[in-house]
């Protein structure tokens, strides 16, 4: 074994007992050593495997750690970059904050300046409106006297010569022209302030067209022009719209057509087109150059052809275009020099089922002679005029006194209240702007003082804004009339609110309301005329009650006694003279 060095081979068992024991012990030891070596070898292999596994784990861990270190390094670099970026952002935020602070400061200053400018603009607009309202009132007040007395003189024109009548007509036309200018300026102010509104109501379309054309027709007749009016047969009888504003537009277009036409005609045509009411105003006038057409609707602009006739403010067409736009249409124009112009527009005027009264209105062409009461009372009607301007009171008193009214005058609200307490009138014509107690306070006091017995109060004022009208109606006024007073309107209001009907020289407007009167023969009429010229009331009464007059001519004598009893001698004289004129015309007929 020593020679071979192989100790794994067991020893042979000798026959000697001691050697046998030693050999067995040695063999047993060798087996144990072999088992232990085998166990050690296996343990070594296990340890090596574990070392291998642990080494691989450590290598994987090192690889992971390396990656983590790389990521950590990247994150650190990213954090550094983020810190740098954050610092830059903070710097930019500081810069932007400073810039925004400066911008906000500038905006605050601009806003403050804007508010101050707006306040100045509002103050200027208010001052402008107040100035225009004040100027309107101040201009309308003297115009009321001018146009009022012009109408009064025109009514009594038969006592004047043709030259004086012509002069009166010039005064009236100039006053009306000035009034139109005032209204145009006020309308433009409303348009600029955005306060122009439409008032929709039902009106008779045919009557509206005829009356509007009639207003323009008078001027056309004076110039020797033919006024043509064409209306389609399928026009609705009653429509809904702003009658006043539509009339304003048509009168402006017709007025321009008449003004710039020297010969030929002016034609107003109305028809239905695509469900709309189409209005067309054409003329044979001087025409408008094509290059000037874009400018004719601009405020205060007057093209070359218009400057040849400088009458007007240059606002009419601008206002008309604005009003038609409010109504949903647009004014279109075609024109040729020396051949004429054509203005047209189409608007929606819905048909109304409301029945509009189209009875004829009273004419003011010097035809009114007086009135007749429709109630059982025979006393003259009493009118109280409240106005601090003497000319306004005088003109109304001079106008109505010859017609048989008893006229009371008050120059202040306090005086008006005293008159109402002592001798209540049948109706009150109340000015609104007065020193001390104004018309609003006076009206309120009278209505409270007299209660249900209070007479109708008609507001008469040069302040004709919608707010003033609404305030008057809310206060309890029966009607509102703007200054300058148009007697046509005033006559209609008086007839509506008083128990009376008007009597004209021809009775053409009131025939249905006045029974037919049988006149005596010419001799007896002349007897009565002599008594009327003498102004002898008692003799007139006796004449009516004698010669069987009170039975055979009861209606005639009754009316004569009524006029004489009310001291309406002038009216009686005019009535008899008119009858005599008619009789002569009848006798002279072939």
Please give a structural write-up.
Strands 2-4-5-7-6 form a 5-stranded mixed beta sheet, with helices on one face. The model is unreliable at 358-366 and 507-516 (pLDDT under 50). The protein is built from 16 helices and 14 strands. It has helices at 17-155, 162-193, 205-222, 243-259, 304-307, 316-326, 390-400, 413-422, 439-450, 466-475, 487-497, 522-534, 537-544, 549-552, 554-565, 569-588; strands spanning 201-204, 226-231, 238-241, 265-273, 276-283, 332-336, 340-347, 368-373, 382-386, 406-410, 427-430, 457-461, 479-482, 500-504. It is an alpha/beta fold and 590 residues long. Strand 6 (332-336) and strand 7 (340-347) form a beta hairpin.
Describe how the helices and strands are arranged.
Blueprint: H1 17-155, H2 162-193, E1 201-204, H3 205-222, E2 226-231, E3 238-241, H4 243-259, E4 265-273, E5 276-283, H5 304-307, H6 316-326, E6 332-336, E7 340-347, E8 368-373, E9 382-386, H7 390-400, E10 406-410, H8 413-422, E11 427-430, H9 439-450, E12 457-461, H10 466-475, E13 479-482, H11 487-497, E14 500-504, H12 522-534, H13 537-544, H14 549-552, H15 554-565, H16 569-588
Helix pairs in contact: 1-2, 1-7, 3-4, 4-6, 8-9, 12-16, 13-15
Gross morphology: rod-shaped
Low-confidence stretches: 358-366, 507-516
What is the overall number of helices? 16
Largest sheet: 5 strands, mixed
Q: What is the CA–CA distance across the termini?
A: 193 Å
| DSSP summary, beta strand count | 14
Q: What is the structural class?
A: alpha/beta
Radius of gyration: 54 Å
Helical proportion, percent range: 55-70%
The run of helices and strands is HHEHEEHEEHHEEEEHEHEHEHEHEHHHHH
Q: Please report which band the strand proportion falls in: under 5%, 5-15%, 15-25%, 25-35%, 35-45% or over 45%.
A: 5-15%
- Side-by-side strand order of the widest sheet: 2-4-5-7-6
Q: State mean pLDDT (0 to 100 scale).
A: 81
